[in-house]
Amino acid sequence: MYKEFYGLRANPFNVNPDPRYLFLTRHTEEALACLTYGIQSRKGFVLLTGEVGTGKTTLINKLLEWLRLQQVATAFVFNSRLNVPQFLDYMMADFGIPCDSKAKSQILLRLYNWLLDRYRAGETAVLIVDEAQNLSDEVLEEIRMLTNLETFTEKLLQIVLVGQPELEQKLKQPQLRQLRQRLTLRAKTHALTLDETKAYVQQRLRIAGSNGQQIFDPEAVEAIHRYATGIPRVINLLCEHCLVSAFVDQQKVIGTTVVEAVARDFDLGDTPSSAALTAPAQNANLDKFDLVETLRSLATLAERLKQPEEKAPLLAKDARNGTPDSDERKL
């Protein structure tokens, strides 16, 4: 409803992962180069991680767009809440590989023959798994086993695992060490800096048809960056609602007042001040000590309430002697 008012042809801050709006920072360029190199060089396993909302799926959609232009066969698993049979069935369907049997041995044999045919034709196949931090250990192990589909010199299937930082922690588990050792390349997405946020907002407005007229006041963009902490998804959310709110009030230029009002609506607060982040260590320890003492007192009270009355004098005696009971020591 605001597009005509601001001279736009499209919605510039849609939260959908549209590859047309991919903003190439240094980190994003490095990540995209890492992914394309890993696939072209048949490295087997590539890992892409990043915080929520930092553009992983948009980056993957850009990669998929490039792969399809190169006529590379792809399977994109975007729902990771699957067991092993469901995962294999989805992968085969997305690759377009027909398989009448539901037996795992037949599925893997059909997949292997299909990959060999593509390899002989000088082609490759790429499996991309999004939200991989939610995969069970069993499915992750099954994915690792898929890398055994290989020739003497090259991997037949290229696999890209995409997930939040929890995925990296998950891969550190001892039972997944074989998978971790097979990760040949790692890429990451990052939050935007203030300068990148300014360029990000301008680029999206330009792609959406802006003629260059000022829509966001420079101080408003600074406020958006501060409230969003540089997370692109949150920047989109704030900018979208700022445009709607300013349009309702018929404001051609969006100022900090509008941004602050929208941020309050979404319960977004300013980032902690540098003073709070650099608080003396002894203060933090004091707070921790007070919390522990409070928990101990509550635990002692709860234990007394649960004990028979005749044991109360013994507990009181222990307290006077400064020897907490065993439950308190465990706490």
Tag the structure with descriptive keywords.
Rossmann fold, alpha/beta, 3 domains, Helicase, Ruva Protein, domain 3, 54% helix, 331 residues, single chain, disordered C terminus, 5 strands, 5-stranded parallel β-sheet
Structural commentary:
It contains 16 helices and 5 strands. The chain is of the alpha/beta class and 331 residues long. It folds into 3 domains: 88 residues, Helicase, Ruva Protein, domain 3 (Orthogonal Bundle), CATH 1.10.8; 165 residues, 3-Layer(aba) Sandwich (Rossmann fold); 42 residues, no CATH class. It has a 5-stranded parallel sheet with strand order 2-3-4-1-5, sandwiched between helices. β3, α6 and β4 form a beta-alpha-beta unit. It starts with a helix and ends with a helix. The C terminus is likely disordered.
